Amino acid sequence: MYFTGGQKLGTESWPRQPVGGPPPPTSPGYGIYSQPQHHHQHSHLGPPLTHHQILSGQQPPQNLTNHTHNHNHSHTHTHHNPHYPSPPIQQHHVGINQGSPASAPLAQHWQQQLLKCEIIRQSRSPHHRARASAMASRTVAKSAIPITNPNPNPKPPPEEPLLSDSPPLANGNASHPSSTVAPIAEPPRPRSEATWTSLDMGGVGIKNLPSNSGLFSFNFLTNLYLNHNGLIAIPPEIAQLRNLELLDLSGNALTTLPPELGMLVSMKEFYLFDNQIMTIPPEFGTLHQLQTLGVEGNPLDTNLKNLITKDGTPALIAFLRDSCPVSAPPQNRAWIPLITPVEQEALPPSTETISVVCYNILCQRAATVRLYGYTPSWALAWDYRRELILSEILAHGADFICLQEVDVTSYEDFFLKHLSEAGYESVYWPKSRAKTMSNENERRFVDGLATFFRADKYQLIEKHLIEFSAVAMQREDFKKTEDMFNRVLGKDHIATACAFENRETGSRVLVANVHILWDPKFCDVKLVHVALMVEEVEKMAERFVKLPPRLWPEPETANGNVDSVDGIADSSFSSSSELSSPFPTTSSLPSSSLPPSSSSSSPPDSPSSKPSTRHQRPKPPTYTSASQIPLIFCGDFNSIPGSGVYEFLSTGTLRKDHPDFMGHVYGKYTGGAGSGPGSAGGNTDGLKSWLGLKSAYAAPAHGVHGAHSRAPQSLHQQQQPLPTSGTRTPGSTPAPGASNNLLSTPASTSLIHTSSSLLRSSTSSPSPELLPTTNYVSSFSGVLDYIWYSGSSLGVNAVLGQVDPVYMSKCVGFPNVHFPSDHICIMAEFRVKPPRETTSSSQDEHGHLPFS
Questions:
Q1: Which residues of 397-417 are buried (b: 16+ CB within 10 A; e: fewer)?
Q2: Contact (Cβ atoms closer than 8 angstroms) between residue 791 and residue 694
Q3: Better-scored residue on pLDDT, 561 or 547
Q4: Where are the alpha helices (DSSP H) in 456-546?
Q5: Average pLDDT estimate for 785-799
Q6: Do residues 813 and 179 lie in contact, with contact meaning Cβ atoms separated by under 8 Å?
Q7: Measured at the alpha carbon of residue 231, what is the angle toward residues 227 and 237, in degrees to the nearest 5?
């Protein structure tokens, strides 16, 4: 029993129920419904509702039924679709699959959908919305005497973010970047030369929409109307219109929908009224911002129709999201060598290498459906994500693992246990607020920074906690600035720095780990935090260089005796920040559980590993300047390559009036209060540093030479996490596909050339990154994570390449089934350069070597 233009099909029918209640919610397309409709409507028992009555929610007269004839006299409308109306409240038809289920009373969200359906059914004429919008925007004569508000607008109070024991992440506020809140200032949307963002192609008789249509190049569109045409299919290329917020495909002859429509994650209103659609693709589960999915008038599957009728569009989207089939995993990430074959051949066999992993793992509290609405709820569960994270970082077998957003519970109950079993020791600190929290349960979910290192290869010499707010309070030039109290002190972000010495060679390295504030409204605070971290690491390097070389025990001798390594940690010193922390910060293994000491540059079958003769340890390097010590900075800097943070770290300088300071005053950094020759550092010209840092992923001058297809065995090769026993542990044989030296690839290993997008010019400043993105969510895609290194003492051998571009083109954002965090893991292998001979003429006034 269905209706076509008011004509009865079958032997019996029911009248359409009157729809009342409040007006529909605000949506991007309903501003144009402001004029009365101009269609000829013929009612059996009375006049129809006016457009004003519909939008104002007025009830019809008591003797009025909604069984109306809605004739369209436009010659362009050449077909008539049957409507599949909702049955009346007082009847219960069990065997009807196409109609809406009977319920008493109708839910408010379903009343609103029926209301919108009635309005759209009256919009059959060509370009109806465009004409109505033009009429509504006609210029109205202004009053001769302008009326103004005599009360001036009150000035908004300055933002003073306060710390709390429990950041309300679950409420979806701006405490963490998410699928709708980008971690940097949102760039302007692409626009055409015109100012229009809506396109009305409704009611003009379009029967075919080719895949090469120029319509799909209008990526600035936010509203697109293709209603009441003769379309029987929608091409997948419509997914290119990523900024669409309203799409109307009502009144066509569509039977199926392309799954690619699930890529339009900005969509809030999606109207499919009066088509022939029987099912909804599960890929629509990524449309997490969708407020209305108009399905009335379709022979939709009973289960789906019942769900949306009873619980609304969000419930249907959640069902589709959690029941969507798992997609195929991406191809392995390829290694990108950054050293030429000639340079590689010229390296001495004893060249020492350092491998580093940097990974923001997304803390438990932030991994919620509210923040990442496109991710299946089961894929956000910590028990699922932690196994993928652990599998990936263990498979790489890196010397150092720098993790961000590691909460106390995850560190103590999971990572500490499993990575200790793999031969790692660690340094961990939560954010500053954890020290003052009285609620133990809340304290255990405060995130922080964890740095793991191979205990068989490196000895921890010093560890240092950098609390930005505390360091800022100690600066004389900051105490006179109002901005420091209003903007800097309200943040509890931290950084950590650790000094290590190689057990075998005696070489030294400083490794810093940081997670910079994400909020784009505080890019000035990002600069201040990075500058404070750089200064603290500079001081640490100057302390480190004054320590004499350690006399390490000799390795295993020919008779099999092993010299003791006990007591090494007793001679190391700690910073004052470490002593003041009430939390356990360092995990150590018993000396009996440490694997035999080995150098990463010596494979198991090398002569140095054979016990036939006594190993002659090389003389440890001598460091005469702090700038000779290798430095590695890892972290989520929440700053893109064009930011002030990137410019400062890559060039070592930043002018005091840089736009990222936003006009705020921060002592000597901005040349404001407290600066001058007598102030700290004596620098009045902005930010300066002698570290000479470079980004490991910055494209070298000679370009990229190729990418190894042999990537370490990672979680992307299979859906199930890799067993721990199959991964490489320090001192053991590397797992298949994993190696200490990333360039020690057999000659038979095939190479794949890097895509042209990775071949960047070295002339641009600052240098662009090889990776197109390290943070991928529906609201943002770009590079935020970096591994910085001192170019005078380290060189880059290879870096872990990008995620499969084909996979990315079909993915809304991370986290998802295959990627457990909104960030991807980045990794680099470095070669250690021997310290250069120094003379008094080659050092600056502070005793530092110039960097190139």
A1: bbbbbbbbbbbbbbbbebbbe
A2: yes
A3: 547
A4: 468-473, 482-483, 523-544
A5: 95
A6: yes
A7: 95
Place of tokens 């009285």: 438
Q: Kindly list the distances between the CA atom of residue 293 and the CA atoms of 81, 297, 630, in Å, as whole numbers in the listed order.
A: 19, 12, 57
Question: In the structure encoding, which two tokens stand for residue 630, read together?
Answer: 């290798």
Q: Specify whether the CB–CB gap between 419 and 401 falls below 8 A.
A: yes
Predicted local distance difference test score (pLDDT) of residue 574: 36
740-778 core/surface letters (b: 16 or more CB in 10 A; e: else): bbbbebeeeeeeeebeeebebeeeeebbbbbbbbbbbbb
Helix/strand/coil for 676: coil
Q: Cα separation of 688 and 675, whole Å?
A: 14
C-alpha span between 221 and 608 (Å, rounded): 65
Q: What does the block give as tokens for 840?
A: 């008094």
CB-count burial class (<10 Å; 0-12, 13-18, 19+) for 597? buried
Distance CA 791, CA 830 (A): 10
Separation of first and last alpha carbons in the chain? 81
Report the distance separating Cα 786 and Cα 237, nearest Å. Answer: 34
Q: Quick one: CA torsion of 219, 220, 223, 229, rounded to 10 degrees?
A: -40
Vertex 576: Cα angle to 570 and 578 (nearest 5): 65
Helix%, strand%, coil% for the chain, nearest 5: 25, 15, 60
The CA distance from 544 to 793, in Å, is: 15
Beta strands in 226-370 (DSSP E): 246-248, 269-271, 292-294, 335-337, 353-360
The pLDDT score that the predictor gives to residue 719 is: 32
Alpha carbon of residue 315 to chain centroid: 25
Percent of the chain with pLDDT over 70: 62
Q: What is the pLDDT of residue 436?
A: 86
Q: What are the counts of helices (DSSP H) followed by strands (DSSP E) for the chain?
A: 17, 29
> pTM value?
0.74
pLDDT value, residue 84: 62
Neighbours of 463 (CB within 10 A): 24
Rg (CA), the chain: 32
> Which amino acid is present at 707?
A
**Omega cis (within 30) before 815:** yes
The answer to whether the CB of 123 falls within 8 A of the CB of 200 is: no
Phi and psi of 154, rounded to 5°?
A: -65, 140
| Cis peptide bond upstream of 766, omega within 30 | yes
Q: In sequence order, what are the residues at sequence separation of 6 or more whose Cβ sits closer than 8 angstroms to the Cβ of residue 28?
A: 222, 223, 245, 246, 268, 269
Question: Residue 60, preceding bond cis, omega within 30 degrees?
Answer: no
DSSP state for residue 581 in the 8-state scheme = -
Among 106, 105, 108, 86, residue whose Cα is nearest residue 96: 86
pLDDT for 213 equals 93
Residue 693 backbone dihedrals phi, psi, to 5 degrees? -85, 150
Measure the CA–CA gap between 269 and 51, rounded to whole angstroms.
20
Tell me the three state secondary structure of residue 632: strand
- Is there a contact between 206 and 231 (Cβ–Cβ < 8 Å)? yes
* Mean pLDDT (the chain, rounded): 74
- pLDDT for the residue numbered 811: 94
More confident residue, 789 or 711: 789
Q: Report the candidate in 537, 539, 517, 536 with the shortest Cα–Cα distance to residue 527.
A: 517
β-pairing, 586-587 vs 508-515, is: unpaired
Alpha-carbon gap, residue 420 to 21, rounded angstroms: 62
* Cα–Cα distance, 324 to 634 (Å, whole number): 36
600 φ/ψ angles, rounded to the nearest 5 degrees: -70, -20
The full DSSP string for 183-194 is: SSPPPPPP--SS
